[in-house]
Amino acid sequence: MKGTILRGSLSGGLEVRLDIGENIEEIKVGTFCVVEGRTHDFFSMVVDEDIEAANPKAFYETLSDNPLLNEVVRGTGIIDKVKIQPMIAIRREDNKVQPVKSIPSYLSRVREAREEDVFKIFGRPDRTHFHVGSPLDMDHIPVCIDLKKFIERSNGIFGKSGTGKTFYTRIMLCGMIKSGLCNVLVFDMHSEYGWEGEDEDETRKKAKGLKQLFGSKVAIFTLDPESSRNRGVHPDFVVEIPYRSIEAEDIVMVREELNLNPTALEVIYVLQKHLGQDWLITFLNMDAFAIEEFAENTGAHAGALQALQRKLFRLQKLPFIKENPADDAVERIMQYLDSGMNVVLEFGHQRSMLAYMLVANILTRRIHELYVKRSEKALGGMQSNNTPLVIVIEEAHKFLSPEMSRQTIFGMIAREMRKYNVTLLVVDQRPSGIDPEVMSQLGTKIVALLTEEKDIESVLCGVNNAKMLRNVLASLDTKQQAIIMGHAVPMPVVIRTRTYDETFYKEITKDEDDAFRRRLLPRLNQVPSTGTFANGAGADEPPPGKEFEDLMKELYGL
Amino acid sequence: MIGEIIESRTAEFVAEAVRYDQVPAYGSFVRVNDGELRVYGIVSGAYTGSLDGMSKAKAFFKSIHELKMEQPQIFELLRTEFSCVVVGYAQHGRYHPYYPPTHVSLHLPVEMAGDDEVLVISQHIGFLEKTLNSPAGNGEELTAAAIRTAARLHPDPREYIVRVGRELLKMLNYDTQRLKSILERVDIT
Question: Does the beta-carbon distance from A72 to B183 stay under 8 Å?
């Protein structure tokens, strides 16, 4: 793409007249280009294309019968025009990156971005700059996300169903895990991240899961051990939720799934108030007389109580809710996270929205509480700062709908951002269902094709030049194309995402073990309960012949 | 030598042909050496009439061959003059695509310009402006003829025509209809 600036404005974008001989058909919306102004380079994105005639009469005169005339007129009387939006400016003198506050002068040259331009803006791949894909039509050039910035805030991955959200999520998870900048907790509704997942690509069929790629760095927790075993997965831990950890708030969140009316919700608060922590199991075990007695004592309506009890019986059908579970899932998750591992919680056959929301909410609430305490301690100087945690949730609009987002823990995490070192990575296909306030707080958004007008509007909420990006969003390919915008990238960019295949596996697992050991072992030594090992000879070095798995066994009896 | 200048203006000169039946082609390039200057023009029209300019030739209704046998004297009474638009001049070996400081003197001999000279002149697309605004009022026709002449000498005539056409379109204020009518007359294949 070569051309010159024809006209434009800061607010409305710039129009580029393509040089004669340039083929507009080859220039795709979303292409990354550079305007070489007099003192600044303006890094821009193609947002629209257009044909214009210097003299509009030219359109209507039949030119097709004379090829010579057509050739003359094309590019002179009738020009191909590309609309671009400058996103970022670099002063050539000192390579200073600035937001765009001016426009390039008339007749400035426009060209396609080159490798060095991409590096200048997005950085070169390294530990904290994760290669996520390449700009359109520049397949060999890596575009990097700044992972440090990425995990600073809550982020979103959006796209219509079938556009590869799962793959983008996998790629981002790999990046985060590899970098070691944060720990990851995935609420894996469809059990596709931990172990093998399906790949729609005929030649590959299977996509490797995180456990396969990162081995001992990832622990698989499951709600449905049978399903896990059937898929050939050896879960590290089977999660059971005690009744006592279910609070009124959790029930409120799944009220639609349980079909509860507002009265029922009020009754729940009454129950919790009078029955205390064991309210749910006590209530479920009440017979008709007990309910009436309770109603009399508290002034609640017996009919409403009975109706509520019938509805709450559904919870008893969830096999993972136990009266006295053998182990505390939250403690286990924290233990794993503390030792630098990442946790994928598989739902197996328990993929109903009810189970997913209930479990995700209960676990996240407690984990969040712990993180808040730790952050406060860290502030008070009593503890070193803890590693940030990224929680991945799917079907996020259920948790973050405008009605819900104020009550659920997820809404809170999305809003308070990085204060407590816990952020979200929300994966969703209906971003319009998410509270606009939450959407605007999301730091980085990775958006695949969206066609619904409302969805496009909602992902562009809080983004500069949103109007311009609309076209770009609607014209993405259905596969392997996404636009990344927000905090972790200096400017919005359309990328062809990396292919999740052998090459990717190789690259992501390269010198994996060494780096991991270096990071992990000193920490393990700090865990107080590991006295046997910490006091052992050569605490800084792994004992000869001991693999990490063995260490874990020794530590946790796994 | 193909003629002698008998009338001269800044933008145009008229020459009498050496022989009444030997005129340079319409749209061809000619040159006049005037002291240090070598002025170039494009033949923009020709006229053949009686020597005195007053009386008119008379029709005999015979073939030229018969006439030459039977009435040889009438050919001696004819004269041909041709007009040229000035497109530029060369001085000290450098071509300037604009009018010379002074118009050409009378009675100077007119010669055909060499191919290499035509190539140089036609590289400066500005000559089209002179032909387009030819005082004779036949601008489009003359422009087409001049492009024809020049294009033949270029290694890639089509490429040249396209390049010239683009400039021409701007001169024509992006009037594609007029451009079309000119280019249709440049039938180089």
Answer: yes
Chain A: residue whose CA lies nearest to B181: A69
Among chain A residues, CA nearest to B177: A61
- Residues of chain A short of pLDDT 50, as ranges, are 525-546
The neighbouring-strand residues paired with A185 are A343, A391
Q: What are phi and psi of A464, to 5 degrees?
A: -65, 150
Site from A65, A69, A71, A74 to mutate, B interface, most B CB atoms within 10 angstroms = A69
At residue A121, what is the residue type? I
Interface confidence, given as ipTM, is: 0.82
CB-neighbour burial class of residue A434 (10 A; exposed 0-12, middle 13-18, buried 19+)? buried
| Residue B126 to residue B133: CA distance in whole angstroms | 12
pLDDT tens per residue, range A451-490: 888 888 888 877 777 777 888 888 888 888 899 998 888 8
Answer whether residue B68 shows pLDDT above 60. yes
How high is the pLDDT of residue A537? Answer: 40
Distance CA B119, CA B23 (A): 22
* Other C-beta atoms lying within 10 Å of the C-beta of residue A115: 13
Identify whether the C-beta of residue A185 lies closer than 8 Å to the C-beta of residue A329: no
Where do we find the tokens 């996520």?
A132
* Global confidence as pTM: 0.76
Q: Residue B102 — pLDDT band, cuts 50, 70, 90?
A: very high
Q: Determine the number of helices (DSSP H) and then strands (DSSP E) in chain A.
A: 24, 23
- Run of H or E residues at A169: helix A165-179
Query: Cβ–Cβ of A63/B180 closer than 8 Å?
Result: yes
Residue-wise pLDDT for B113-136, tens only, equals 999 999 999 999 989 999 999 888
Q: How far is B125 from chain A (nearest CA, A)?
A: 15
Say yes or no: B187 contacts chain A, CB-CB below 8 A: no
Name residue A40's beta-bridge partners: A91
Nearest-CA distance A79 → chain B (Å)? 12
- Selecting from B158, B173, B183 the residue whose C-beta is nearest the C-beta of A69 gives B183
Nearest by Cα to A460 from A471, A450, A470: A470
Please count the residues of chain B.
Answer: 189
Q: Is B177 on the interface with A (CB under 8 A)?
A: yes
* Between residues A388 and B5, the one the model is more confident about: B5
Structure tokens at A408: 């659920």
Contact check, Cβ <8 Å, B176/A66: no
Test A69 with B180 for CB contact under 8 angstroms. Answer: yes
Q: Which tokens is A251 given?
A: 């029930």
Q: For residue B123, give how far its alpha carbon lies from the nearest alpha carbon of chain A (Å).
A: 17
Q: Could you tell me how many CB contacts below 8 A there are between chain A and chain B?
A: 53
